[in-house]
Amino acid sequence: MSRFVDKLPFFDRRSSPMEEAGDIPRNGLLHMHHHQPHHSGLLMQPQPSPPAKQSSFTLAQLLKRVNEARSDASSPTSSPTHSHYTIELGGSVPGSTGSDLSERMRGGGDRGSDGPLLQFVLKFTDLTYSVKQRKKRTCLPALPFRRGGGEPAEPEVPRMKTLLDNISGEAREGEIMAVLGASGSGKSTLIDAFANRIVKESLHGSVTLNGESLDSNLLKVISAYVMQDDLLYPMLTVEETLMFAAEFRLPRSLPTKEKRKRVQALIDQLGLRNAANTIIGDEGHRGVSGGERRRVSIGMDIIHDPIVLFLDEPTSGLDSTSAFMVVKVLQRIAQSGSVVVMSIHQPSYRILGLLDRLLFLSRGQTVYYGTPRALPSFFNDFGKPIPFNENPTEFALDLIRELETMPDGARDLVEHNKKWQTRMAPKAKHHDGHVEKTSLSLKEAIRASISRGKLVSGASDGSVSVHSPGELAAPAAPVSKFANPFWVEMGVLTRRAFLSTKRTPEIFIIRLAAVMVTGFILATIFWRLDDSPKGVEERLGFFAIAMSTMFYTCSDSLPVFLNERYIFLRETAYNAYRRSSYVLSHTIVGFPSLVVLSFAFALTTFFAVGLAGGADGFFFFVAIVLASFWAGSGFATFLSGVVTNVMLGFPVVVSTLAYFLLFSGFFINRDRIPRYWLWFHYLSLVKYPYEAMFDNTPLAALPAVLKVRVLRAMSQSLGVDIGTNTCITTGPDFLRQQAVTDLTKWDCLWITVAWGFLFRILFYISLLLGSRNKRR
Fold first, then answer.
1. Domain 121-129+160-423: CATH superfamily, name plus number
2. Molecular function terms in GO for this entry (predicted)?
3. FRET pair for 178, CA 20 to 30 Å: which of 363, 391, 411, 710?
4. Sequence ranges of the domains in the chain
5. pTM, whole model, 2 decimals?
6. Residues 732-764: pLDDT tens digits?
7. Are strands 223-226 and 308-312 parallel, antiparallel or unpaired?
């Protein structure tokens, strides 16, 4: 019996009574429901009959159903519209699932005029997108003919490359629309076009929801975009990751208890209960599996129950079972009242049974758009029938790849699709025309979704409004741009960053060890310097080396944001939090470690070197070291917002800090620096903490006779010809000319602190300009 059913074609097996009856308990009651085409949302009530006759079907009756389904499928005219039967469990207990097909029908596949109202329709029309191609540059001049023959050279590369070429179609609430094609066919580009991730000037055509164009801010609120890569914090557990997402995306008016309930329900929906307390993990820490990681990534974006969900190859890199479980979760999301659009490389048999609409692409052109059920007849009309028992999508993709190797590419298939769509348009209008007439306006549909529990963050007050055409004066339905106020976002970001830092103590320990080892080396080299001119000269060297070393140790702040960059882009792309909240929380989390490092370096060097000033001098030394760490980490943080790669960032940091040290006034005096480089002297971060040290050394309190000896020693070391008379009469003036006493120690301290604030403001500006995350 099972061998007979396995022989059936895929689409007959999916709606077969035998397939439906496989999950029915032996003591259940069987009811037969007659489904008319496009009325999948309705199930007829069972006819009353005596209990004895209603208890079960005989084997002969079941075989008859199978034969009827097979005979209907073999008819070319009836395949799109034939009636079929579903056998369901009568009086099932709550929680029983029944068949997958019945779930799809109840979830709202194609609805008829008597079915529930279709609230959301995402329609895209004539989407076209082209990019400029860079010409291949060569050192050799272009030759009109190839060497050794008269054949012409290769044709010039076109200036513009078309990635999308007049793509049209629609995706509906309760359905999963899958975009398929070979690598480079334009799948991800099309998903980006739907999600408004391409600048409007470059994308031609229209994308509407319920016939209305989508404002960028509104789309960010009502939709979610799941990237192909799983961008998650590795040291957070699954439950913590989803809880932080809930705190970002769910409004402050929702109690924490309710947010936890939402997270627990989502964990069960995603099938992550067994991994709830397991960390995400990375290359150095064992964590959840690839399929679980992908489901967590999806869960972060659906925590607020969005109306539209875009996914870029959510099954990429997963095994067959994990991929099926991911798409099964997406089916449940669609059935809850969402529009789900995803790209997928090559779906399996089981995954194909969960999809409602398919859009095949070949080099940016549509080669098929329709339901999976219509694939056999489509390719049969094209003259390439799908072989028996072969996966239709595999056959289609193989055929498309074969056609792309031809000179004309898949042009014949593209033209066939256009004719097919023209021929099928009257039938689609006949069956689905009522949807356009009875669908709600966008404002009404969003209000209805919020009222039934979707779009959780949309229930709070905000600044983004929904306007229907012709109702500009009417009060708009408020939808918040951000779910939470600024201070709440900053608090959540700070807690998350502290938790991640706490679980990776080795990073801070290595940094602390580096500072203490550096301080120990400097302390042993400059041990107990005296007040002689030689000692004063050596103090100058200690100050310069100490300050430059502190700035160099701050370069490890560079990879902190670079490792989080794409997580930040993902979260801010759909208004999870403000960029200003991220910058301030980033500053708050990093400051305590700077305080510890400053005290560690000061305790290691101040007393060992023999610096003067007592307790006041020590605490000022701690303050100037802390200011140096503050400015240096701010500079590295700013560069991390400008560069996109650690390998590019480190050379920039190291070379720039070397320039700062060169122009600080230690190696060359200010009056000997060329005028055209003098501006760099005042921009040097090392200049100000270096000069601030002098008031806390014996240099400031030296008697006049000793100053003469100091200046003579400085003239020998600096190579400046200073006479005895000059030193005695104009010693303070000389120090002033060297910019040593141009500023007081407090002026130098506050200028260094101001540099730290300036670099963090520049970091914020770089995030504003560099995180728009749109194609051009």
1. P-loop containing nucleotide triphosphate hydrolases (3.40.50.300)
2. ABC-type transporter activity; ATP binding; ATP hydrolysis activity
3. 411
4. 121-129+160-423, 486-695+744-774
5. 0.72
6. 444 454 445 567 788 889 999 999 999 999 999
7. parallel
